[in-house]
Structures are given as structure tokens and as C-alpha cells.
Specification:
4 helices
């Protein structure tokens, strides 16, 4: 069964998944979820993906979300052209670094906003 990727072209997380799918030469179908129009809140999409986020990968009716989880699945399910180390400790280090980058990129805009608001209130 051909996996179906639900994505938005400007999503960096979806872009990561597309890179891995293409480097591994996995045939997949793509369904665009236009975040600018709120398509991620459409009842039909939320029924398939309650998080309402992109990317999401449908594998024969099983929905995977979160780019790192999808990449880990793809690397395991399609072992040719490995994207991640096979050795468990090295693989864990890659995930720790990736999660650190994602967390810092998510926190930075919030902390900048708080700093800006605090400076305006002073």
C-alpha cells in the first residue's frame, strides 16, 4: 500500500519528511493541507488526525504524526539508504540533538515575545 503524506509546502517539519521519503525513494501520495485556510481543522482531517497537525503519514490506515516519529518509522521500514545510525546509543544521540533543536526553536519565539512585552510594560 502506498503511504499518503498529509503536508503543507511551507512546513519545515513536513519538508524533513519529504526529504527522507525522496532520499529513500519511497513512492508516496501527497495530500496538501493548507494551513493558511485552516484546512487542518476540517472535520474530515481531524477525524483522521486528531492533532490536526502536519505532517501526518497514513500507512494503510494507521496514522503517524510528528516528523521525528515518521522519519524513525521510515528508516526502520525502508532500511536501504539509512538516515539514522543503526547503533542504539548513536541513534539516541541523534534524537536528543534533534529534539533539542526543535525545543529551542519553539521556545525562542515565545521568550522573545515575553521579553518584548516586558520591555514595553516597563
Amino acid at each position: 500500500m502506498t503511504p499518503v503524506l498529509y503536508d503543507y509546502w511551507r512546513s519545515s517539519a513536513a519538508y524533513r519528511v519529504r526529504i527522507v521519503l525522496n532520499l529513500k525513494q519511497v513512492a508516496y501520495d501527497s495530500v496538501a493541507i493548507d494551513l493558511t485556510t485552516g484546512a487542518q481543522r476540517d472535520p474530515a482531517y481531524v477525524a483522521r488526525n486528531p492533532q490536526g497537525l502536519v505532517p501526518a503519514l497514513d500507512i494503510g490506515g494507521a496514522m503517524l504524526t510528528q516528523s521525528l516519529a515518521i522519519i524513525d518509522y521510515l528508516d526502520t521500514a525502508y532500511p536501504a539508504t539509512p538516515m539514522l545510525p543503526r547503533e542504539p546509543l548513536a541513534r539516541a544521540r541523534v534524537f536528543a540533538q534533534a529534539l533539542s533543536v526543535i525545543a529551542s526553536s519553539a521556545v525562542r519565539p515565545i521568550s522573545i515575545q515575553w521579553t518584548y512585552q516586558a520591555s514595553r510594560a516597563a
